[in-house]
Structures are given as structure tokens and as C-alpha cells.
Specification:
alpha/beta; Rossmann fold; five-stranded mixed β-sheet; two-stranded parallel ribbon; 6 helices; about 30% helix; globular
């Protein structure tokens, strides 16, 4: 997704990454890389300020990071956030592995921000550009969706954010088992 976004001249992209372990490099003018820690409130606030949208893809053990990010967004008056979260966060009973992700989703939903939560069934690195989007309680019986497949959806959400505001969307390859 980063590779696609950095080719679009109308988008200024700031990546807030954990220290250098990611090894992501770019020579494109519209991409800025900040290495930092989501526990560093000052660094988060500086990196979020003057942006239109925050895109968040956290691991399940990042509940405090999601709270820190939403707090920094409110302080800098950035209202729009798009989040990737696993599909099962609204199924009951919750499996133990999903509970931390549910906390992240709840933090975002209760933040007062203009959110869209995308819940892929399972992410892979390969795949076709064919996916189905359903609502929070309309569980699709599809299988894994690739990161490549999510880019058109994320781009659509960025371009028409009012249509997807305060929504939880499930994404999967339809009719796959």
C-alpha cells in the first residue's frame, strides 16, 4: 500500500514506524519517515499535527498505543482515522487472541473521532484484486484477503470518507473457503 500511495502526487504520506527495524527507505518527495515509539506522546503529537487522516495498523498488544494516538489526534485537531482490525472483534464469544484487538476497536469507536474500521478476514501478501465488503454484523464466509486487495478499499475510503465515516467494514474474498 505504501508503494501505491507514494506514487500519488496529491498525497503527502508520513510513516511513523518503530525504530529502524522496518528498514523502509524511500526517495520520494511526498513521503516522510519518522522513527518513533507510540508511547512517546510528544513525538506522536508532532507527527500527527497538520495531517488529514491517520491510518492505523497495530498489533493486538497495542491498546495503549491506540489510546495515545487518539489522544494526540484530538490535541492536534485531526479527526479522521482508518484502522485495520481483525474480523472477529464483534463475534461472541470472543476468543482470547481477539480480546486485545477488540479493546483497540472499542478505543477507536469511543474516541469521538471520525473512524472507519476495516476488518479483513485474514491478511496475506498475495492475491487477486477482488474482494467483498460487508457491514459489522454481516459476516462473510470468505477466506484471506491480501494486503494488495485492501489498497483499493482504503483509497476509496480516503476519497469518500463521509460515506464510510463511523463504519465497521468487513473485507474478504467472497465465496472462498
Amino acid at each position: 500500500m505504501i508503494e501505491e500511495l507514494q506514487t500519488q502526487s496529491n498525497i503527502r504520506l508520513t510513516l511513523f514506524l518503530r525504530p529502524a527495524k522496518r528498514g523502509f527507505k524511500t526517495n520520494v518527495d511526498n513521503v516522510r519517515i519518522i522513527e518513533g515509539d507510540s508511547q512517546d506522546h510528544r513525538a506522536l503529537t508532532r507527527s500527527i499535527a497538520r495531517h488529514d487522516i491517520v491510518f492505523l495498523n497495530l498489533t493486538g498488544h497495542s491498546g495503549e498505543a491506540s489510546r495515545n494516538i487518539t489522544t494526540a489526534m484530538k490535541e492536534t485537531h485531526v479527526k479522521r482515522i482508518i484502522v485495520i482490525c481483525p474480523i472477529a472483534v464483534y463475534e461472541t464469544p470472543l476468543t482470547p487472541i481477539v480480546i486485545p484487538y477488540k479493546k483497540i476497536a472499542d478505543t477507536i469507536r469511543n474516541s469521538g473521532l471520525e473512524y472507519t474500521i476495516i476488518q479483513p478476514t485474514w491478511l496475506t501478501c498475495t492475491g487477486r484484486l477482488h474482494y467483498k465488503v460487508t457491514g459489522e454484523v454481516e459476516f462473510e464466509k470468505g477466506m484471506a484477503i491480501s494486503q494488495i486487495q485492501l489498497f483499493p478499499l482504503i483509497n476509496k475510503i480516503m476519497e469518500a470518507h463521509e460515506k464510510y465515516m463511523l463504519k465497521n467494514l468487513q473485507a474478504s474474498i467472497p465465496n472462498s473457503q
